[in-house]
Specification:
The complex is a heterodimer of chains A (164) and B (285).
Chain A lengths: L1 H24 L8 H12 L2 H16 L8 H17 L7 H27 L7 H26 L9
Chain B lengths: L1 H34 L5 H76 L6 E11 L6 E4 L12 E6 L2 E11 L4 E5 L6 E6 L5 E5 L6 E7 L9 E4 L11 E9 L7 E8 L8 E10 L1
Antiparallel strand pairs in B: 1-2, 1-12, 2-5, 3-4, 3-12, 4-5, 6-7, 6-9, 7-8, 8-11, 9-10, 10-11
């Protein structure tokens, strides 16, 4: 129960951080996705039974603000969660560089996939632009170690985590 | 080997199924949300989610706004700090200028007064400024004019106070560019003076901090408080008719005395002396 409360707290923190950074970075035309960094960090720490719903919910939060399509972010975040759980069997996410590269790559994948889904379902392009996506991915990657550290620090070990 | 492998496969199969089931459910759910029209079911889902997310959004928005405000507040604080420093410097400069202006105004007032009542109209001499004043000896000053300007030893020195000129002292030492003036209150100062009424003559001597004394005034002389005292024509140093001061008291309490002792308040106060007029030639113009 305590683990779930901590998870809810982290989710709140993620939404606040995402909102703040999106507001600030929009001034420079960057498409930063801190929510994804949190979702990835959740998946590296939590058991799949909690990691997938957490990632799905993070995506759903972003979908809540969409006007053309609903569920695309939830879909891409779930795909990202699948990739993270697959990678977790091969890589150790304790190091800073795996965290940075994973977040960087997934931000690019999620952004591209979102654009494809929008084109497919609504026939409208929402491509933020290559450099905007690259800049946002880079910024998300830079922030990734701090996000991972926070998530691990708050969640630690418990019933909801992989390490009991 | 083969049975073992089959056993292991059978053992892991339910776990593997569960591992794929969970993401599949969420992927399917999100796919369903995508294919459904935004009105109807999706709208209801959004409405339900709004109860969860809107407080979060408010919190996030408030935090973002606060963060922006913090940035602006910090910038404003830094600006205010810089402005404060500049203003403090300006205030210091203004204070300095104000004090300088006050001193200049004071000097201007005195000089205007000097011009109005310039003794130079009547006597030949030079104006001098007090250049130095010994802190322990207020009744002697050093002026910024010397022999090069025509100042000689025992030259009479005048000054202005309350719009009236009066005897300030006498030059005792002269160098090329400076001179030492002994003021009226000094104990070594003496001058032959005369009372305004009756023209009785006596010898004025300084008395330090106590009132200046006027000696050798005959006992029956009618001397009153406030009577003016002028330099006498018999004086070899001071030109006649210079105001020295006014009578502040008469002592006749000693039964054996042969003359009155008159106390005189000098016209020029030692502490107020700033500009002095040194008479270089005692003859009137």
């Amino acid at each position: 129960m305590w683990g779930l409360i901590k998870l809810v707290f982290l989710f709140l923190l993620a939404t606040v951080c995402h909102w703040c950074l999106a507001t600030v970075c929009s001034v420079w035309g960057l498409s930063v996705n801190v929510m994804l960094a949190f979702a990835v960090a959740f998946c590296t720490v939590l058991k799949p039974a909690f990691g997938y719903p957490a990632a799905f919910l993070c995506g759903l939060f972003l979908d809540f603000f969409g006007t053309k399509l609903f569920g695309n972010n939830a879909f891409t975040f779930t795909v990202a969660a699948c990739i993270v759980y697959a990678l977790a069997e091969r890589f150790d996410f304790d190091g800073i560089f795996p965290q940075i590269f994973t977040v960087f790559g997934l931000t690019f994948v999620v952004g591209s996939l979102n654009s494809l889904l929008l084109v497919w379902f609504t026939s409208s392009s929402m491509w933020p632009g290559f450099w905007s996506l690259l800049g946002g991915s880079a910024l998300g990657a830079v922030l990734a170690p701090a996000v991972f550290w926070t998530v691990r620090r708050v969640l630690g070990k418990g019933a909801v985590c992989r390490q009991a | 080997m083969l049975p073992n492998r089959t056993k292991q496969h059978k053992k892991h199969a339910p776990g593997a199924k569960r591992r794929f089931l969970l993401p599949a459910v969420f992927l399917l759910l999100s796919f369903l949300l995508m294919i459904l029209p935004l009105e109807g079911f999706v709208s209801s889902v959004k409405a339900v989610l709004s109860y969860i997310f809107i407080p979060q959004v408010r919190l996030a928005h408030g935090t973002a706004k606060y963060a922006q405000n913090v940035h602006e507040t910090v910038r404003e604080l830094l600006d205010a700090h810089r402005e404060n420093r500049e203003l403090k410097q300006q205030i210091e400069m203004t204070k300095l200028l104000s004090s300088q202006a006050e001193a200049i105004l004071d000097e201007n007032g005195r000089l205007t007064e000097i011009l109005r009542l310039n003794p130079a109209r009547r006597w030949n001499g030079v104006w001098a400024k007090v250049a130095y004043r010994e802190p322990s000896q207020w009744n002697a000053v050093t002026i910024d004019k010397g022999s090069a300007d025509g100042v000689r030893e025992r030259s009479a020195v005048l000054s202005l106070e309350d719009g009236q000129e009066g005897l300030a002292g006498v030059v005792t030492e002269v160098t090329e560019n400076t001179s030492k003036v002994l003021l009226v209150r000094d104990e070594d100062f003496t001058a032959a003076v005369a009372l305004e009424r009756g023209r009785e003559e006596g010898l004025l001597t300084g008395n330090g901090l106590r009132p200046v004394r006027l000696k050798y005034i005959p006992l029956l002389t009618d001397v009153r408080k406030g009577d003016k005292v002028y330099t006498s024509a018999v004086s070899g140093i001071f030109p006649a008719g210079i105001l020295v001061g006014s009578v502040s008291g008469v002592r006749n309490d000693d039964s054996f005395q042969t003359a009155l002792t008159v106390e005189v308040e000098p016209q020029v106060r030692s502490a107020a002396v700033k500009e002095l007029f040194v008479i270089t030639d005692g003859r009137k113009k």
